[in-house]
Specification:
Elements lengths: L4 E2 L2 E2 L3 E6 L4 E8 L3 E9 L1 H4 L7 H22 L9 E7 L3 H18 L3 E5 H7 L14 E6 L4 E8 L2 E7 L5 H11 L6 H9 L23 H14 L16 H26 L4 E5 L6 H10 L4 E2 L11 H12 L22
Parallel strand pairs: 3-6, 6-7, 8-11, 11-12
Antiparallel strand pairs: 1-2, 3-4, 4-5, 8-9, 9-10
The structure holds 5'-O-[(R)-(carboxyoxy)(hydroxy)phosphoryl]adenosine and zinc ion.
Amino acid sequence: MPERKSKGRPQPVRLLGIETSCDETAAAVVEDGRIIHSNVIASQVELHAPYGGVFPEVAARRHIEVIGPVITQALSQAHIGVSDLDAIAATRGPGLAGSLVIGLNAAKGLALGAGLPLIGVNHLEAHLYSLFLLDETHPVTFPVVCLIVSGGHTEIILMLDHGRYRRLGATLDDAAGEAFDKVARLLGLPYPGGPALERVARNGRAEAYRFPRAWLEGTYDFSFSGLKTAVLRVVRKLQPELKAGLEPPRPGLPIPDLAASFQAAVVDVLVTKAVQAVKEFEATQLFVAGGVSANGALREALRAASPCPVRTPTPDLCTDNAAMVAAAGAARFLAGQRDSMDIDVLPGWTLATLSG
Ligand code: KG4
Ligand code: ZN
């Protein structure tokens, strides 16, 4: 990452990052895009658990309630005032419009009040910059292949330089995390499903069920909806008394085996495609980011198969947080980006449309 220099001495760049794209209200103070002074996350998991997924209106209302205290806490934990900051970065998209607008407006208010620059950040770029947090080993040699696997996205991106991306492929239906969450629900596991499913899968046999892999040959695209249906079909066969597959399963269902076999199918496709991209584009590194990058089976399989080093965030930085927003914001700030107070949220913002 570039450094701001003054008479040969690098000046620290401190940013407040704000993240409200989905169901976490988060604020963080980060120095030079990598030193975390505070990283506050107010999770809404318990609010959405009864719905088995994020309820957009409930999420927006909770963001409004907690955004002020979360920002105050991030500043006080960092022992810093707004006037000590160099810029304010907030997630602009992609995400839920009603949630994004709360974080972006909070950032605008603070930036305007303190006369600081505002930086609108792409949430997917922020996930990638979670890999630079706490890191001492700059600079990176490009190109880098990036596998972004979260609850809302599954994409393979070719990173050509800081801020320059080419999308190689993406999911045509469910995101990998969404598939984990839906199958976990089917198996009666608690929300959010990904970590719960990974836990029970440790006691299961990955080869117990041969679930389908959607290879979509000749592309870097993914499809997970058929896999989810295949798990549902097996559950219904084993317990025909369950009608829609929405009621909790009865005792006797081989949950660890089903979970391990499902996870193996997801990991198989993600690893095969990511490694194929690394080879085709002669990548120097493979970056893996987003909530599903916390998955141990995925990390292990990627490390075993990749011909180049695999870089993953520390577990607490895999899922949504504001430190990654501040890190991406710092790179954009140092590259000269300054956004106007008129910018709006971009709920469908893709990485490929970002310019260098
Ligand atoms: O990146 P993230 O916090 O939010 C989005 O931007 O979507 O990702 C959340 C997703 C959820 O679907 C969650 O189930 C999944 O990441 N996840 C996992 C694991 N930890 C979180 N999936 C599989 N294994 C895990 N250990
Ligand atoms: Zn995310």
